[in-house]
Design goal:
- The chain is of the alpha+beta class.
- The protein is about 40% helix and about 25% strand.
- It has ten helices and 13 strands.
- The protein has helices at about 1-30, 85-95, 105-110, 115-120, 125-140, 145-155, 165-180, 185-200, 220-235, 300-305, and strands spanning about 35-40, 45-50, 55-60, 65-70, 205-210, 210-220, 235-245, 245-250, 260-265, 270-275, 275-280, 285-295, 310-315.
- The chain has an eight-stranded antiparallel β-barrel with strand order 5-6-12-10-11-8-7-13. The protein has a four-stranded antiparallel beta sheet with strand order 1-2-3-4, with no helix packed on it.
- A hairpin with a 5-residue loop joins strand 1 and strand 2.
- Helix 5 packs parallel to helix 8 (about 185-200).
- The radius of gyration is 32 Å and the shape is elongated.
- The relative contact order is 0.07.
Length: about 325
Amino acid sequence: MKKGFKIVLIFLLDLISLIFLDTLQARVLKHSPLLHIRETLDGESYVDKGVLINTYYCTKEDKVHITWHFKTEKFTCPLEVEWTKKDYQEHLDKIINQGPVTSSNPFDYIEASNQDYQELLNHQKETFQYAVEDLINTKEDGLKSYIEALLCSKINQNFQYDFETGMDFLNHYQDFLTHCDCLYNSYDQYAKSLLKEKGEENMKLYIKIKDHVLSATLEENSSARALQEKLKESDLTFTLSDYSNFEKVGDLGFSLPTNNQQLQTDYGDLILYQGNSFVIYYDKNEWSLTKLGHIDNITQKELKSILGTGNVTITLTLKP
């Protein structure tokens, strides 16, 4: 009887030691106890139930967070909380409003509110989407746009540029998305879709000639964008003169950036020549030119009739 009791006692001590060592190595080596039963939780989360501890694998935002709790503790995996535009704005406002008022260096503001800055970076997908959306919609330089450009640059490593302002970043990022023969990631694809939507709204120009209003779709380049910015200040009225029986040309009164290419023009093309001349083509030509856009839904005969012969006064506007 005593011998049997000793065997049972040794077995129980060995079992307790095994459970203790199993629990200890699970915590130290950061995995589930060897002796466990798996139970599925909400979504893709699950728990491995050991003898003394439970190991929770909580899935959130495509990431798995592992945590351990003793059997006596009550624990549930936190539900995935949506990171809203309000959350984003609150942290961004803290960086802007709680920074050193005597400094104009954005990095001083970030250093003063580094916890908020890191919280923004912890929600990479949402922060990039909100930041790039703000940059595209507001198109204003300042501390806010610089920090948003910095967040976009930190999160999206596919585009790196030593920018000076938020709009400097956006303009070069826009050129990258338009002209680069690259493999675009999910951040780039999202930005491209936003720019396409915004472009469809904003890339329109209206040309008033006598009693006619012609609509035109602008090109996606720095020349057309610069012209848009000028027209946001005020409409532009000037005179076009006929040249060589294929175009009407007039002086803008200021210079725009050029994006010259060897072009085969056609009627309805809007062209920038030598950086300061606006041209409407009503026939074909070939030269190194910058295309600004093209007049919508018009025949060559209709265009020639509207332009007439000799000089003609036109008004460029963004308002139909």
